[in-house]
Write a structure and sequence with these properties.
The structure holds three protein chains of three kinds. Chain A starts with about 25 loop residues before the first helix and ends in a 5-residue tail after the last helix. Chain A is about 65% helix and about 0% strand. In chain A, strand 3 and strand 4 form a beta hairpin. Chain C is elongated and about 60 Å long. The chains are: A mainly alpha, B mainly alpha, C mainly alpha.
């Protein structure tokens, strides 16, 4: 029986003794604890955020003025391609995964996810996939065909070892896709199957609902891009003719965007879920229209399958397809708009506390609305024909992805930091971060709308003087450096909080959901006793009842304050909760899954297979052997010893 | 899935329905064999192309359903199990039909 | 005080919100995603089936329908042996379990051999993966299917080996069920492929 901190004698069986440590540096490599895996995802994603941001700064430096000479065209292509790939696949998705991993079991009252080792595997595959992608910079050149990799440019093959750019793209994304698919199955099963007693679907927090929709979007969309990427890979290394030499380049676009459009909802729904948790907490009001928000999220997930060709309006789809996709795109604005109204209504009349998480959440609502509006203009086909391939599109997606997803994710970072690390981030620094970021962001991307309408094309490495674009480009560059400063402020805040941050209690924000009932940080087994849930926002109702005048009245023993007193829902739970919150829980008699080498060992096989496809098939075979051996070891190893 | 306050979800144990016997499996396999033979026979008959295509699709759909419902046991299992599979099938059929229709149109108008 | 441990899947129904085992639900979810994978490959084939340059045969001109019919039948019967293997282990009859597992794997290997033979015949006639979009689509689609079959054979042989070592008791019948679900899926993909690729006229 493995409990935190106890070193057990190593047991035999398998290739080598099972690791047992759950604390210490090396334990991070063998952990199967969803909380540690969430932290790993978070830190790694943030590191890639810095790298992707630096790429953006070079881009902005190059475009600050006309006739830029900081980078040449080839390097510029690699920079903007990797910036996009990094931000989408190595930042926003894994940062969302960090929150999913950390919070899903806590919010549904479970002790871990359905498949803890598979969870660890997903992380290591993600890390190795990202490193694989980036190794391309020193192995002949990074992917340079845009993150969307259109055919037939993506097929232009070079000799092995010389021009592998887009081969790294295909293989790298295939590896990352494995990580996400496996994680999605894991989390979907967790949400369906591991909810605490009483936690019916419609008592789950909105964040869990959004997470749930995202897992299914991943499960169904990733296979499509998987096929697209394999076909690309085969065109490049096997001489097939899927996208060129008789094949149709538009096939790539269909396969890519069939994935790509659900992908953008995968990118935004987690942040929407986060915002749906923050706004009620800092308005001291329940989310307005919980079921409507949930159904809108589901509607977005379903309708998101019907709009992909709006990325292809200029490929000659024909009038019927153009019209159909224009209409479906206009319709999908409806559930999104509904959510925005519900968020506004949540704050309306609430007792608003403008703490940093709340600022980011409100920033999300405002910036995402702007991005959504430019998106709606894209749905008008003749208008889109003018906007396509201009900076107007760049403005749109940065408003929804940065102003939306990134701001929402930072809100989540400030909100849950105390729970995860046991320290509260400094409010003053947080506010500086927020305002600098908001101003810098708008200064960077606001002008892009104008530049786009003035005709500045995307994906150009420099522009000539005399186009009338100089001033706005300079403004955007200044804005991008402001964003960088704001990120530095955040990093300083984070580092500082380790030693100087206020120690966090279990429930620093007076929250509504189950993760606030346990200590900060939580014990390895999460809950001493699995909670029994009686209502939506169950924790809130244990803490407060409403008096006849509709005013909130604190229940004396609800939550953590005073053990032993009675309340409406059952004393013992409150009492235990109090003790657990105060002392971090005992964990006696709780059987947790054991750490394991198998996830990280197995995941080594994948980059080996990948490099082998470019440098020598013997390496791929070796990688396959590593994979199979790892999988066997894994299958034969018990979950816990 | 709504659960009542009185019955925590951990207490729900759905007894698995008994699997069909070996005889039933063999019968299903025989039916599958007969349908396969029919498909092959039909493909040799000189009928209108669309009649042929339709009959082949119907026959293979019947085989598909038989394997899924009986061999894969979905007919007897918890209803939740069929949802992800059906959702995948419906999504696939819908989006790929649209893609094919558009690409065929695209290749025709190009030539 | 019910202390709910993490629901490890070591066979048997552990307490889950739906009463379904985690691994079974995971397998069906995975199969749902696989329909989209094969759907894309099938659609690509349907798009390119007649796309050949002059001088290269279309797939339909070189298919040997009787031959492929036999191997289709072989794969279909392997689903029967698979489900019989599951029935056997659920009854605790380990000898029969091994017989049927081995039979399934063998039928799978016969199928793969048939594919290999067929492919070499096509290549000899000038229809290869690199000579036309039709060839590219045909070989990639069928090879993906074949790779899935091969992985299935590996899993079946592993179960067989475990059973021989006495490590596949009746309590772990679920493992056979999960591999079975995968195997049947591979079979139904072929049911679709055989019709759409081989039987339906160009």
């Amino acid at each position: 029986m493995a409990s935190a901190g106890h070193a057990l004698p190593a047991k035999g069986g398998g290739f080598f003794a099972r690791p047992t440590a759950t604390t210490g540096f090396w334990s991070w490599f063998t952990t199967v604890d969803h909380k540690k895996i969430g932290i790993l995802y978070g830190f790694t994603a943030f590191a890639f955020f810095i790298i992707g941001g630096l790429e953006a700064l070079v881009i902005r430096a190059q475009l600050a003025g006309p006739d830029g000479e900081i980078v040449d065209a080839e390097l510029y292509n690699q920079l903007f391609t990797m910036h996009g790939l990094t931000m989408v696949f190595l930042v926003v998705m894994p940062l969302s995964a960090a929150f999913f991993n950390y919070l899903i079991p806590l919010m549904i009252g479970a002790r871990d996810v359905a498949f803890p080792r598979l969870n660890a595997f997903s992380y290591w595959v993600f890390l190795f996939g990202g490193l694989f992608m980036y190794s391309s910079f020193v192995l002949g050149g990074a992917p340079n065909g845009g993150w969307f990799g259109y055919a037939p440019v993506n097929v232009q093959a070079g000799e092995i070892g010389a021009l592998n750019n887009m081969t790294f793209y295909a293989i790298g994304l295939l590896i990352l896709g494995i990580a996400s698919t496996v994680s999605a199955v894991n989390l979907a099963v967790t949400i369906i199957n591991m909810r605490a007693p009483g936690m019916s679907f419609f008592r789950m927090p909105v964040f869990i609902w959004m997470a749930f929709v995202v897992q299914f979007l991943l499960i169904f969309a990733l296979p499509i891009i998987t096929v697209g990427l394999f076909l690309l890979l085969f065109d490049r290394i096997l001489g097939t003719s899927f996208y060129a030499s008789g094949g149709d380049p538009v096939l790539w676009q269909h396969l890519f965007w069939l994935f790509g459009h659900p992908e953008v909802y995968i990118l935004i729904l987690p942040a929407m879920g986060i915002v749906s948790e923050i706004l009620p907490t800092f308005s001291r009001k329940p989310l307005f229209g919980y079921s409507v928000v949930v159904f809108s999220g589901i509607a977005i997930g379903i309708m998101g399958w019907g709009v992909w060709a709006h990325h292809m309006f200029t490929t000659g789809l024909g009038p019927v397809a153009n019209s159909a996709f224009a209409v479906s795109t206009m319709f999908i604005a409806v559930p999104t708009g509904v959510k925005i109204f519900n968020w506004i209504a949540t704050t309306w009349g609430g007792k608003i506390r403008l703490a940093t998480p709340m600022l980011f959440a409100l920033g999300f609502v405002a910036m995402f609305t702007i991005g959504g509006l430019s998106g709606v203009t894209h749905s008008v086909v003749p208008h889109d024909t003018q906007q396509t391939d201009t900076y107007y599109v760049v403005a749109h997606f940065h408003y929804v992805l940065f102003g939306g997803a990134i701001l929402g994710l930072f809100g989540g970072v400030y909100y849950w930091w105390p729970k995860i690390f046991g320290r509260v981030l400094n409010e003053g620094l947080g506010k500086i971060h927020f305002w600098l970021m908001l101003i810098g962001f708008n200064l960077t991307f606001g002008p892009f709308h104008i530049l786009g309408l003035q005709g500045m094309p995307r994906r150009i490495y420099r522009y000539p003087d005399g186009m009338g674009w100089n001033a706005w480009n300079m403004a955007a560059t200044v804005g991008s450096f402001l964003i960088a400063v704001s990120v530095l402020v955040f990093m300083w805040n984070a580092v500082r909080s380790r030693t100087k941050g206020e120690i966090a209690v279990a429930d620093p924000w007076d929250g509504r959901t189950l993760e606030w009932t346990i200590s900060s940080p939580p014990p390895a087994h999460n809950f001493d006793e699995v909670p029994v849930v009686h209502a939506l926002d169950d924790f809130w109702h244990r803490k407060y009842v409403e008096d006849k005048g509709g005013q909130l009245v604190r229940v004396p023993s609800g939550g953590q304050e005073e053990p032993g007193a009675t309340d409406a829902h059952g004393t013992e739970q409150a009492a235990h909760g109090a003790e657990q919150a105060a002392h971090g829980g005992s964990g006696h008699g709780i059987h947790m899954p054991s750490p394991s080498y198998m996830p990280i060992l197995t995941s080594f096989g994948l980059p080996m297979v990948g490099y082998g496809l470019m440098y020598g098939y013997w390496l791929s075979i070796a990688g396959a052997v590593v994979l199979l051996t790892g999988l066997y070891g894994w299958a034969l190893e018990p979950d816990a010893e | 899935m709504a659960t009542t306050d009185q019955t925590p979800a951990t207490q729900i144990h759905i007894p698995e329905k008994a699997h069909p016997g070996e005889r039933t499996y063999v019968k299903v396999a025989l039916v599958l064999g007969v349908i396969t033979a029919a498909e092959i026979a039909v493909s040799y008959i000189d009928v209108n192309k669309w009649v042929l295509i339709l009959s082949l699709i119907v026959l293979s759909a019947v085989k598909f359903i038989l394997v899924v419902q009986w061999f894969m046991h979905l007919k007897f299992d918890h209803p939740t199990l069929r949802k992800p599979f059906i959702a995948g099938m419906v999504t696939a059929l819908t989006v790929y039909t649209i893609v094919l229709a558009n690409l065929v149109y695209h290749s025709r108008s190009a030539s | 005080m019910a202390d709910q441990a993490v629901a490890h899947d070591a066979g048997g129904v552990h307490a889950t919100s739906t009463g379904i085992e985690n691994t079974k639900l995971a397998m069906w979810t995975f199969l749902g995603s696989e329909t989209l994978l094969f759907g894309a490959l099938i659609s690509t084939f349907l798009l390119y089936r007649s796309n050949v340059p002059p001088g290269i045969p279309t797939p339909h001109e070189i298919f040997d329908i009787p031959f492929t019919s036999v191997s289709s039948f072989v794969l279909l019967m392997s689903s029967l042996t698979m489900v019989l293997a599951l029935a056997a282990i659920q009854h605790g009859d380990h000898h029969r379990t091994r017989v049927w597992l081995l039979a399934t794997a063998t039928l799978g290997m016969v199928f793969i051999s048939g594919q290999v033979y067929e492919f070499t015949a096509f290549v000899r006639e000038g229809f290869t993966v690199g000579t036309s979009p039709a060839g590219s689509a045909f070989f990639v689609l069928t090879s993906f299917h074949g790779a899935h079959v091969t992985l299935g054979i590996l899993m079946l042989l592993s179960l067989f080996g475990l059973s021989l070592q006495g490590k596949l008791p009746r309590e772990r019948a679920n493992a056979v069920e999960y591999v079975g679900l995968y195997w049947h899926f591979v079979d139904i993909v072929w049911i679709v492929l055989f019709t759409l690729v081989y039987l339906i006229p160009a």
